[in-house]
Design goal:
326 residues; alpha/beta; two-stranded parallel sheet; 7 helices; TIM Barrel
């Protein structure tokens, strides 16, 4: 169990370099995405930023928020494709987190999933998550997320403890759960996991801003609360997701991919820099997996110039600087 060792009695410095995850997510939206001819190029480009981790997100779907089962669809990355891209990532010198998602069709929010029959839903969920735990074990993936932003069901501590026990029967690596930024305090099973995972989409401003000073000031009370929570739970905190679209106003609602139609490359870059300035070197902080690298060719709903990707934008230069890319 990878519990964090925190300073006692003020005898050790609050800031001290510790191993951190420098990661970027490469999500999938279709069965063949991870077999795309672009896959090797994407992995090379991710590695070139200074990243040392990549996250993959195979996704199953349930039709309605009250349904009690989830299933793979044509939008689910194939198992064979996922195995191949994990092997490719390792060949490029990247460590891997597999972070399975359960989603609703269209723009439905997975946090609103509230099954009519919870017992049946959790039985279906254990089948889903252990399927990917087996795949993670078979591919030597270094880390695994047992769930992502399932706020409608994540309060059931006993059921999640059973899920985690089932996953540990199939997979021996590091485990986390990816809680939304407004969900993590309601999670009762952090002690069963190795890392606290938070999707760090906190709003940082009430209006568009490129001011690093203002953004760092906004992060300060959040950082203090997270440090205290890490001590309380005796676990380091990983930002399992964090990201900003390159749109004006992204710092007001980082979770919104349609906040504006006006480009905001400088605001995106300022947000990247403020996050890394704030948290790098904090002993309780385990790193970040940025959302996200490029969409697959012909699959992106948002034009690349406005999307979450930092690729080819000032935000990528921030990553290269902060992560020491050669």
């Amino acid at each position: 169990m990878a519990a964090v060792l925190l300073a006692v009695g003020g005898c050790q410095p609050e800031r001290e370099e510790a191993p951190v995850i420098r990661g970027i997510t490469l999500p999938s939206w279709y069965r063949t995405d991870y077999d795309s001819p672009a896959a090797d190029r994407y992995l090379r480009d991710i590695r070139a930023t200074g990243a040392r981790w990549v996250t993959f997100t195979p996704t199953w779907y349930q039709k309605r928020r009250g349904d009690s089962v989830m299933r793979p669809t044509e939008e689910t990355a194939s198992d064979a494709g996922l195995r191949r891209i994990v092997r490719r990532a390792h060949a490029h010198g990247l460590k891997v987190m597999i972070k399975p998602h359960v989603d609703l069709p269209g723009d439905g929010d997975r946090a609103e999933i509230r099954p009519r029959d919870r017992a049946v839903w959790f039985t279906s969920y254990r089948h889903f998550i252990t399927h990917y735990a087996d795949l993670a074990a078979a591919t030597d993936a270094e880390q695994f997320a047992v769930g992502t932003e399932l706020a409608g069901v994540s309060g059931d501590r006993a059921a999640w403890t059973e899920v985690i026990e089932a996953v540990r029967d199939h997979y021996d690596g590091t485990l986390t759960y990816a809680a939304n930024y407004d969900e993590y305090r309601r999670i009762g099973f952090w002690r069963e996991l190795d890392l606290i995972g938070i999707d760090a989409y906190w709003p940082l401003s009430d209006r568009p801003t490129q001011s690093g000073e203002r953004l760092r000031k906004a992060w300060k009370p959040i950082s203090e609360r997270l440090a205290a929570y890490s001590r309380e739970q005796d676990r380091r905190i990983l930002f399992t997701e964090a990201g900003y679209v390159s749109q004006r106003g992204t710092t007001t609602a980082p979770y919104d991919w349609t906040v504006s139609t006006r480009p905001g490359d400088a605001e995106q870059a300022a947000a990247y820099r403020a996050l890394l300035d704030t948290f790098t070197g904090r002993r309780w902080w385990a790193g970040v997996c940025w959302w996200m690298w490029d969409d697959w060719p012909d699959s992106g709903e948002t034009p690349a110039k406005l999307a979450y990707t930092p690729h080819g934008k000032p935000a990528e230069k921030v990553l290269r600087e902060k992560w020491g890319a050669s």
